Automatic annotation (TrEMBL):
Enzyme Commission identifier(s): 1.5.1.5, 3.5.4.9
UniProt keyword Chloroplast, yes or no: no
This protein's UniProt keywords: Amino-acid biosynthesis, Histidine biosynthesis, Hydrolase, Methionine biosynthesis, Multifunctional enzyme, NADP, One-carbon metabolism, Oxidoreductase, Purine biosynthesis
Organism of origin: Psychrobacillus vulpis
Name of this protein: Bifunctional protein FolD
Protein family (similarity comment): Belongs to the tetrahydrofolate dehydrogenase/cyclohydrolase family.
Pathway this chain belongs to: One-carbon metabolism; tetrahydrofolate interconversion
InterPro entries (alphabetical): Aminoacid_DH-like_N_sf (IPR046346), NAD(P)-bd_dom_sf (IPR036291), THF_DH/CycHdrlase (IPR000672), THF_DH/CycHdrlase_cat_dom (IPR020630), THF_DH/CycHdrlase_CS (IPR020867), THF_DH/CycHdrlase_NAD-bd_dom (IPR020631)
Known partners and oligomeric status: Homodimer.
Role noted for this protein: Catalyzes the oxidation of 5,10-methylenetetrahydrofolate to 5,10-methenyltetrahydrofolate and then the hydrolysis of 5,10-methenyltetrahydrofolate to 10-formyltetrahydrofolate.
Entries under NCBIfam families matching the protein: PRK10792.1, PRK14186.1, PRK14189.1
Domain Tetrahydrofolate dehydrogenase/cyclohydrolase catalytic: 6-120
GO MF annotation list: methenyltetrahydrofolate cyclohydrolase activity; methylenetetrahydrofolate dehydrogenase (NADP+) activity
């Protein structure tokens, strides 16, 4: 199969270039979009992700603050911090990096973020609006996948999209967003029997299992578009996705690499959401 590799870095650069112009317009009106990122504990991967988020903010001329809290922080203290950020006019978007330590109820923290500042799109109000197709903040990773497909000229309408994974962050919203674009959607997950039977029917296969190189070429229909959401380390400590890239690219027509596929898009969409949150304050 002559396939093309979907260049997420390049598409993310196009998206952020547009955001940068919107930031300039906002600044001319006296508003600097501001993002607060809250990181609890010292998970190395989370630290890398949040550093990338705040660095990109600065590159685009946005204001950003990184709030680092101890692994042992109480739920009450974290909720207090979120409340402060809800009331801080310089902050338009709040992101609490997940996962959170065991002593903290994630659902309570997410629900405490003002829906007006919910740039992750995880608040129940945002999720509900997304489900019924109302304007809201869309979760950054599935939103980024939609953009990748759009910029790569993949028309989703009428296609069979198969999602592997059913997390609240990726799998579930991914299926909803593709459904809204008129795809026929199938959800697969760890309890799915005969996964091959489903994935082999996919025109668009989105893989978000969190298991390194789990999906090889044998799962993929000739000519399918393959989107790999995973970020893992392989046996040589090299970054890799949930898809076995080498065998998958033999059969796919288009495929995202790891790194350089979905990852940069997640950050780009966070920037877009933060910019939108600031724009809304002017209306
Ligand atoms: N952990 C992994 N992905 C995400 C994300 O998109 N947002 C937040 N807040 N935490 C995450």
């Amino acid at each position: 199969m002559t396939n093309s590799i979907i260049d997420g870095k390049q598409i993310a650069a196009q998206v952020t270039e547009k955001v940068k112009k919107r930031v300039e317009d906002l600044k001319a009106k006296g508003v600097t979009p501001g993002l607060a990122v809250v990181l609890v504990g010292n998970n190395a991967a989370s630290q890398t992700y949040v550093n990338n988020k705040t660095k990109t903010c600065e590159k685009l001329g946005m204001y950003s603050v990184l709030i680092e809290l101890d692994e042992q922080v109480s739920e009450e203290e974290l909720l207090h911090k979120v409340e402060q950020l809800n009331n801080d006019d310089k902050i338009h978007g709040i992101l609490v990096q997940l996962p959170l330590p065991k002593q903290i109820d994630e659902d309570r923290v997410i629900a405490a973020i003002s829906p007006k500042k919910d740039v992750d799109g995880f608040h129940p109000e945002s999720v509900g609006k997304m489900m019924i197709g109302q304007q809201t903040f869309l979760p950054c990773t599935p939103f980024g996948v939609l953009k990748l497909l759009e910029y790569s000229g993949v028309d989703v309408a009428g296609k069979h999209a198969v999602i592997i994974g059913r997390s609240n962050i990726v799998g579930k919203p991914m299926g909803q967003l593709l459904l809204q674009k008129d795809a026929t959607v199938t959800y697969c997950h760890s309890r799915t029997k005969d996964l091959h039977a489903f994935t082999k029917q996919a025109d668009i296969l989105v893989v978000a299992t969190g298991r390194a190189k789990m999906i090889d070429g044998s799962y993929i229909k000739e000519g399918a578009v393959v989107i790999d959401v995973g970020i893992n380390r392989d046996e040589n400590n090299k970054l890799c996705g949930d898809v076995d890239f080498a065998s998958a690219q033999e059969v796919a027509s288009k495929i995202t690499p790891v790194p350089g596929g979905v990852g940069p898009m997640t950050i780009a969409m966070l920037m877009e959401n933060t910019c939108l949150a600031a724009e809304i304050t002017l209306n």
